[in-house]
Amino acid sequence: MILSFYLARRFLWMLARVFLIFFGILLLIDMLDQLRRFSDEGVGVARAFQLALLHVPSSLYTILPLILILSSIAMFLGLARSSELVVMRAAGRAGLRILAAPTITAFFVGVLVVAVLNPIVAGTSNRYETLSSRLSHGNTQILSVSGEGLWLRQGDREGQTVFHARRANANGTNLSGVTVLSFDNDGQLTRRIAADTARLTPGEWQLSATKQWTLADAVPEATAVQADTLTIPSDLTPDTIRDGFRAPSDIPIWELPAYIRGLETAGFQAREHKVWFQSEMSLPIFLAAMVLIAAGFTMRHARLSRVGNKVLLALLVGFGVFFLRSFAQVLGENGQIPVLVAAWIPSLAAVLASLGLLLHLEDG
Fold it and tell me: Model pTM?
């Protein structure tokens, strides 16, 4: 038990060191990129540092499995060079038993990452997108999806117009059960329109079976106007609506199931979000697999093997598994393979393959 705690502590210390090294490098690179990107907006070093601090967590989260395998390689090489692995084996501790502590630690690190770090990264990513959007375009997200349906926002010189629809087509250009709310530049509600459908055409929304209330009137119902068709000018396009959808990585893991239900209720395809959710659930297993892969190539005494070749091979295998996992997610998002297969099979296959390699090396 004491040895297991020692190995777990050694692994966590190495993981923290590698994580901080990558954090510092990515922060510096991202800060320079923010200075270049927003140079025309007069962004200074302090503001660029703030933007980079919000953007870097998402980059670190993406490459977390690679950080795990680098940390594992560094730890096992350190144990080999100090001959601690030799002492452990001489004391009768089997190789797989030595691996139990760092592997279980990596698994629980993955659980902590999904439960705690994922919502933090989602929050920083959303804040970064808001700030960068204001600097670039002067506006924020135009689309929101909830269990009540779809919400769209557009603006012009006269104010803001908000669309609410119970259902929509896949790209949000055909709406049904529509309510339109118009606000002036002071934020006062000036007009309400109810329509059966709304269709986006170049430069305008075409509404059918409409009823319009002018809320500035003393009795809006008395002056309400009904019409078969009505048009509302718009600068929205299918591309801007599609870009308004929140990326799965920008949604906290705890809120993602409700967001998926909202998408499906509104009539949208939620396969990408389902694949992301299941992939996040399998992340602890995948991180444990990274430790096993590193051990399969580097858990040998330094004098008895070609260390450089083994490290390179471990990195290549780790990068290959990471690429295959990403490729499987793309196939799942496109509907080429089932969601559960895309999310879980790469992680489980990596664990089983690395265990097979370790059993072969340990028991011949």
Answer: 0.77
